[in-house]
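User: quick one, sequence for these C-alpha cells?
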C-alpha cells in the first residue's frame, strides 16, 4: 500500500480492523446461504461495508494520481507497480468500473488472508499432536535449510525437493479444509453429477469436508492424519494416477472458480 506515512499507518490499522470484523461475516455460518430470501436483510453489516468502500476508494484515488507520472518515468525504480496499478491499466480493455475494481480487491483481500493463516494454524496443531510426523518433517526441513542461517526465505529453499512438506500441507487441507462447503455456487445450466441431476438456477454447496474423509476414496484410515498417502506409492497418488488426474483433493475447489492463491 505504498511508503509509510501517517495516512498509510491509519489505513493499515483500519485494514487490520476490517479483516478482523469481516472474516467472521464471510467465513462463518449464515442462515441466508441455506435460505436465500434472508439475504435481503444483508450479510455485510452497513458499517464495515462503508469502511471498506472508503478504504478502497482512497487507495484507488492514490493509485490513479500516481499512474501518469509513473508511466512517464524513465527510471525503473520509479515504476513501482502493484496489483491496483495493473487493474487500473486494464480498465478500458475489460470495461472495469470502479465498483468492479473494488469488488476484485475485496475478493482477493478476503480470500487470501484468513485462508492461508488458518491452514498453517491447523497444520501446526496436527504436528503438535503427532510427534512421528513432526520429527520426519523437521528432518526434511533441516536437510534443506542452509546451516547456521537464522532467517530463511523461499528463495533459499528448493521447495520442489521438499516432498514431505508438500504432503503434510495436502493432508492438512484434506482433513481440515478452511471452507468446508467452499463458496456457494450457482448452477447456470442443468447438468448431471454422478447420476444426480442439478437443475439450472439453484444454489450448490460442495461438501469438501465430507469428500476429504470418504473412506471409499481415501481408504480405511481416511480419518487419520497420514501425509504419506500423498507420497509416491501412497493411496492418494495411486488413486489420482488411476483417474488420470494430477490433483487428488479439492480444498480450494477445482475448475474455473478455483482459488488463485
Ligand atoms: C491455503 C490457502 C487458500 C485456501 C485453502 C483457499 C481456498 C479457497 C476456496 C475454497 C475458494 C472458493 C472456491 C469455490 O468455491 O469455487 C477460494 C476462492 C478464492 N480465493 Fe482462495 N484459498 C487460499 C488462498 C488464497 C490466496 C492467497 C488468495 C489471494 C491472494 C486467494 C484468493 C481467492 C479468490 C480471489 C477466490 C475467488 C475465486 C473466484 O470466485 O473466481 N485465495 N479460495
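Assistant:
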Amino acid at each position: 500500500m505504498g511508503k509509510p506515512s501517517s495516512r498509510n499507518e491509519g489505513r493499515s490499522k483500519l485494514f487490520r480492523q476490517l479483516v478482523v470484523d469481516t472474516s467472521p461475516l464471510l467465513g462463518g455460518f449464515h442462515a441466508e446461504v441455506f435460505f436465500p430470501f434472508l439475504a435481503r436483510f444483508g450479510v455485510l453489516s452497513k458499517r464495515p461495508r462503508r469502511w471498506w468502500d472508503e478504504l478502497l476508494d482512497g487507495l484507488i484515488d492514490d493509485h490513479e494520481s500516481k499512474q501518469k507520472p509513473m508511466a512517464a518515468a524513465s527510471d525503473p525504480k520509479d515504476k513501482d507497480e502493484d496489483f491496483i496499478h495493473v487493474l487500473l491499466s486494464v480498465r478500458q480493455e475489460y470495461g472495469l468500473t470502479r465498483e468492479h475494481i473494488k469488488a476484485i480487491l475485496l475478493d482477493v483481500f478476503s480470500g487470501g488472508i484468513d485462508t492461508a493463516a488458518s491452514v498453517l494454524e491447523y497444520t501446526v496443531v496436527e504436528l503438535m499432536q503427532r510427534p512421528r510426523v513432526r520429527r520426519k518433517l523437521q528432518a526434511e526441513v533441516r536437510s534443506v535449510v542452509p546451516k547456521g542461517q537464522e532467517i530463511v526465505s523461499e528463495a533459499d529453499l528448493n521447495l520442489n525437493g521438499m516432498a514431505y512438506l508438500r504432503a503434510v500441507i495436502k493432508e492438512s487441507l484434506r482433513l481440515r479444509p478452511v471452507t468446508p462447503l467452499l463458496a456457494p455456487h450457482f448452477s447456470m445450466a442443468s447438468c448431471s453429477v454422478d447420476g444426480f441431476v442439478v437443475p439450472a438456477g439453484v444454489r450448490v454447496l460442495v461438501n469438501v469436508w465430507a469428500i476429504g474423509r470418504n473412506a471409499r476414496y481415501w481408504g480405511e484410515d481416511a480419518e487419520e492424519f497420514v501425509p504419506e498417502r500423498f507420497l509416491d506409492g501412497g493411496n492418494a497418488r495411486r488413486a489420482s494416477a488411476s483417474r488420470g488426474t494430477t490433483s487428488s483433493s479439492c480444498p480450494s475447489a477445482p475448475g474455473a472458480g478455483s482459488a488463485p492463491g
